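W.,

You were right to be curious about this one. When I first looked at the sequence I had no strong expectations either way, so I just let the prediction run and decided to look at it fresh. Below is the sequence, 289 residues in total, followed by the output.
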Amino acid sequence: MDLTNKIAVVAGATRGAGRAMAVKLGEAGATVYVTGRTTKGEVSPMQRKETIEETAEMVKKAGGNGIPVKVDHTDQKQVERFINQVNKEQNGRLDILVNDVWGGDPLTEWGKDIADHDIQKGLQMQKQAVHAHLITAHYAVPLMKKNNSGLIVEITDGIDYEYRGNFYYSLAKISNIHMAKAMAEDLKDYKITSIALTPGFLRSEAMLDHFGVTEENWMEGTKTDQHFIASESPFYIGEALKHLACDPDVRRFNGSALSTWELSEVYNFKDIDGRQPHWGKYFKEHVEK
């Protein structure tokens, strides 16, 4: 589990899964560029308190090198400038790209169809969750092609093309899966692996706040939603990413849509509380029925 001398970019690492993935890469010794819009001096439209500086410090405490850079990944000029910075500081090296930009929760109007849903919110969701990923990959992939190696991870929700309960949400998340598959085909002549990765029921900071609990007493949340019992902390997907990044045979997954629960069985890792949640199995047995 050694990523010493490896260079990673986690786009959208201010909080949640992105923060945890950055920290886990740092735990293995990687240099991790932590990007997002919330800094110590400026709060993003998400109106959350977590900052990229805090994430970078967590990466350093875990054993890596965390570098915070304020980037709006929907802005081509900002992304181009950022990748040029990575290129210059790391002598053209980029080994791992994690596309985790999202911010779509406050934009999703559950229970409304394509006609009733606010169109501006729907389009903004595509801009943040799809366009931002396209822009970031466009500028980052040339560094990987130059070195004929790399790992691209598209963070999504789900492992299939099934409808996810909202037109705009579903379109965004399925797009991320197909982006991973399309890049795998596009880059098959290079030693670049492209995959999609999904968490299960994620206990992000925002979700913990929603249920009025902390990571220490999260099970109290089951009084509000019984399915919360099958939830997982962000560090579960962090472990999944770390194992993928350290796997010398990761190309066997090229073009695949993977999940935390499946990879926990492949690599035999557990969540921060010692559990091994399996959202896929739980969903089929308790939610679909």
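Here's what jumped out at me. Strands lie at 7-11, 31-36, 65-70, 96-99, 150-155, 192-198, 257-259. And, maybe more interesting for your project: The radius of gyration is 18 Å.

Coffee later to discuss?

I.
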